From TrEMBL:
Organism: Gilvimarinus gilvus
All copies of domain NADPH-dependent FMN reductase-like, residue ranges: 3-145
Cited InterPro entries: Flavoprotein-like_sf, FMN_Rdtase-like_dom, ISF_SsuE-like
A GO MF label: oxidoreductase activity
Protein name: NAD(P)H-dependent oxidoreductase
Its EC number(s): 1.-.-.-
Amino acid sequence: MKNVLTLYSSARPRGNTFAMVKVLTDLIPLQALYLDDLDIRDYDYDFGNQGDDFANVIDSMLKADVIVFACPEYWYALTPAFKRLFDRFTDLTELECLKVKGKALRKKQFYLFTTSASKKPSDAFVSVVSHTLNYLGWVFAGLVHVYCENKLDEGEAKLVLSDFVEQVSRG
């Protein structure tokens, strides 16, 4: 079994994205971090933000084999917490002390899990993640989307998550 880290964010801490992560947690063991509870500061050209939780998140990512970004689609975009995290990935390309960690993440598999009131996520939303990962040389291994116009249907979520769980369980 691969070691899975799920990073999730949502305007509603107990909303559909949380419910999706909860279903996943019931199916396989994983570590989950709620980005909105962490102190990840905006990107700073002078790197005056190094005392926040960003380095700890990267260290957690390095301990995992598979990293899941779980995020609802808001107006074709990531949540503000994910936007900050993605902006801060720049630190992994510019700070000498972090470049080796950024390169080590090239050995990991990254997935995007999303919930939305659309039958499928927009290409614009997915491309932000896929293009960022590609730029960094990280592996975008797949997308899992659960449609939920209102409340997430846990039965449907289990079905949608089953292929991912099978892949991760194979090791």
